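Hi U.,

Before I forget, here's the chain from the pilot set. I'm dumping it here mostly so it's searchable later in email.
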Amino acid sequence: MSIPKEPRQLMINLMYLVLTALLALNVSAEVMNAFFTLNKGIENSNKIVDNTNETINKNIVKQAEANKKDVNLKYRDNAQKMLTELAEFTSYVDGIKKTVFDAAGGPSKEDPTRPVNVKDKDIPTRLLVFDNSKGKPGMGPDLEKKISEFRTKLIAYAENDKEATASVSLAVEEIPKGSDKKNWSDFKFRQMPVAAIFPMLTKIQADAKTSAAAILNYINKKVAGEDLKFDNFKVAIAPKTGYVVKGDKFEADVYLAAYSSNPGQGVSISVNGGNLAMKDGVAKYSSTPGGLGKQTVRATATIKNPLTGEVKRVDGTFDYEVGERSVAVSADKMNVFYIGVDNPVSVSAAGVNSTKLNVGISGEGGGTITKTGSTNYIVKVTRPTKAGEFCYVTANAEGLADKKPFRVKRIPDPVARLSNKANGAMGTGEFKAQAGVGAFLDNFDFDAKCTVSGFTLVRVPKRQDAVREVNDGPRYNSKCSALVNQAKPGDVYYFEDVKARCPGDQAGRPINPLVFSIK
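Structure:
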């Protein structure tokens, strides 16, 4: 695979190389976990591309509106149409993902984001290569057709410009010569495990989005817009694996992911204090871990903005685990323990009776560990760790030992909302119908609930002095209820000093204030 110069496409291609390497391994639980970790990494990269595309599109609209020539308005409309078609294409691929997810047994009890039958190879073959149950081809040929059609549209929007079309990575791969595969879908999906299908499909979405970014950059130049100035940068690390056996080599691609179509000149990258040589925007890093437990790779990128001359330094880290071949301690959700909730971990040893495996906990965090199954444990912690401190889960048997470090954190701050809104305008009736303020944990994987412990409600009537009342708990007390019932159009209500308590909290923590204008 050739490495393009476009940084976002670099990111996706490198992740795809990781997928290819994983497919060469035996299908084990670690590999299955790696597939889902890889899929999440590509999805996170896609979010960066989405933000970039949105920024470029806003600039296209701004410049076209400022200089309303027919040709500029045409390019503006082309950008809007292309983004609509991109959304339709990615939604179509999402539909395939859902079909595979449902066919693989739907959400698993251990992790509802993963299907039950992650190792099954017959489901992808049946659904994507051929569907014997319906007597017709699977979804693969239709996906192949839509990829080709959307690629043709992208090239048309680029007006066949060589530089722009060269960056269109979305394509149907050619079947290697000598392959026994009958067609693209057979080559792509036959006998692939269910877990591998998701990063493969997400990679197709990534190709579509980065290709659209290249076309948007072309259109942006055509409308003679101002040079885009980006001020947010990230260091990305794409590891070959998140788990390394002692004595084996750890390898990773370290590269710059920026909110820009081209990082330009003046970029340098170092890892753990040592400078790395760069080629086509990518720095290669490898090391051989010398010990067990958590290993941390610290990467630093120095970037000179070619537009402003401003020099910035950004840092990024990647943690991976090093363990023995026969003993494995793994977090069932993540390598962080949260205070106030049950943190599941799995501990196993090949060839060792589970009754002779001694599992314990040490280090910081005030942790306790309880066995809940043959290989399953629950860890509870009470204190967050500081920098350089860890809570360790240890596993020991005769001749075997493993030790895994975990960070300990408080549950993330919840978000205060009133009728599912954090601020903005609200009708009088809707505002008066609310009984109080709720605290919500967004995108938190654990079963935990936070409650509002108090707030100060301030009513600012139109052309009148403010009225303030203090409220304990999430529901309005009598004074606050009376204040809410006085709401009229033009009033502004402020919820200040909002505090919430989450599991493990000794006292309420400050969270976001709320502001509502009554309409």
